[in-house]
Amino acid sequence: MRIILLLLLVGCTSLGPMYGQRCTSQTDLENISASDIERRNRHLQQVESFLASHPVMDRNPITIPIVFHIVYRNGEENISDEQVLSQLAVLNEDFRKLNMEQDDIPFAFRYRATDMALNFVLADTDPNGQVTTGITRTFTEVNNIGSKFLNNRRSICYNDLGGHDAWCPEQYLNIWVGALESGLGQSSFPGLGPLEEDGIRIIPEVVGTVGTVEPPYHLGRTLTHEIGHFFDLYHLWDNCNAEGDGVEDTPPQSSSYLNQCPSDAQFTCETLDMYMNFMNYTDDACMSMFTHGQKDRLWAVLNTSRSSFMNEDNCGLVSNISSSSEVPKVQVFPNPSSDFIYINPINSKIDRLVLIDLHGKVCKKINVQTVNNYALIDVTDFVDGVYYLQISSGTQRWSKKIVVQKTIK
């Protein structure tokens, strides 16, 4: 199996007739940064090394916590909890080989269909240790917010741009539900893009099986497809290239099957096409399977670039939190900051401050020593991005988001 270097930057958009056919991967590659090239290549080499050194084996299922960030401009975009829950049910059927379409798989491919051994649940605890439904709701005034950028930041992924900040992307699968200018959904790939934007963007009209959904994208398969991309699975079609998706048991094909729902055998590259694979563009009703090879690749990613999903550390931010409702009160300013962050520990019980990045890595530990009631953190050498300030007071821990931004207007 070959190493596929820099094949994709973001998830190729699953497209419907009302949105037109468009995939942004190739154009985005023209603007890829040198650091992203290095990260992506390193990821791909790790995946291929893992695949080469680990034989095919049964794997115990793991559970992926999901948070849905619903970012809406009107009532129709503010989809119901029931619609979200119907999507969750689809994911657990599709990734565990429990979907009703198993009987529709052509006999020639039934032995290749497999249980991907992934379970999905709505997060029940947020990064601050608070109880949550796993669904956030944010009103926005930004049109097509899922496609908008400001200063190279994707608007839907940031509170200050009209969207919603990611929850610890290495521990939660963040799914932003909001309007896109084109396409139905798009996903981050491992090893590319800022961590704050790592996750999936999807329009509300294709989430789940009830509510605002309409055929032919009414069975929740857009998100199944995009989660495949999130764990580094590619589209099957590549001009009949047998190694195009990096998986040995998916036949070569040249058609995406966009807006199609075949009922008989299909051939585009002299072999039978696996049009029913979740990584094609087939209508929802005709999607039904992942293969053993796709499972091996997904699990290679879970053991390398996305290995943080194999544990339940919850970002390392809020372990052993007291059940007390009283939390330390602090003033943190300026925020965002380009050089220094001042902390005013109004509550004298505070005994330690820790600054943690989105990877859960401790960047600074500060023993609280105040001058004129202020503590000071120097962030002049920090990379731009989001951090969490963890405040300790006895057995309690509380965290506050900090933004480092070198150019502040």
Fraction of residues in β-strands: 15-25%
Q: What is the number of strand segments?
A: 15
| Main β sheet profile | 6 strands, mixed
Task: Summarize the amount of helix as a percent range.
Answer: 10-25%
CATH homologous superfamily assignment of the largest domain: Collagenase (Catalytic Domain)
CATH topology of the largest domain: Collagenase (Catalytic Domain)
User: So, CATH architecture of the largest domain?
Assistant: 3-Layer(aba) Sandwich
Task: Just give the CATH class of the largest domain.
Answer: Alpha Beta
Give the radius of gyration. Answer: 22 Å
Helical segment tally?
6
What ranges have pLDDT less than 50 throughout 5 or more consecutive residues?
1-30, 316-327
Shape: globular
Secondary-structure element pattern, one letter each: HHEHHEEEEEEEHHEEEEEEE
Report on the architecture of this protein.
- This protein folds into 2 domains: 25-310, Collagenase (Catalytic Domain), CATH 3.40.390; 317-404, Immunoglobulin-like, CATH 2.60.40.3080.
- The protein contains 6 helices and 15 strands.
- The protein has helices spanning 25-29, 34-53, 81-94, 107-110, 221-230, 292-302, and strands at 62-72, 118-122, 135-139, 149-150, 153-154, 173-177, 185-187, 200-202, 330-333, 340-345, 352-357, 362-367, 375-378, 385-393, 396-404.
- The strands form 4 sheets. Strands 1, 2, 3, 6, 7 and 8 form a 6-stranded mixed beta sheet that branches.
- Strand 4 and strand 5 form a beta hairpin.
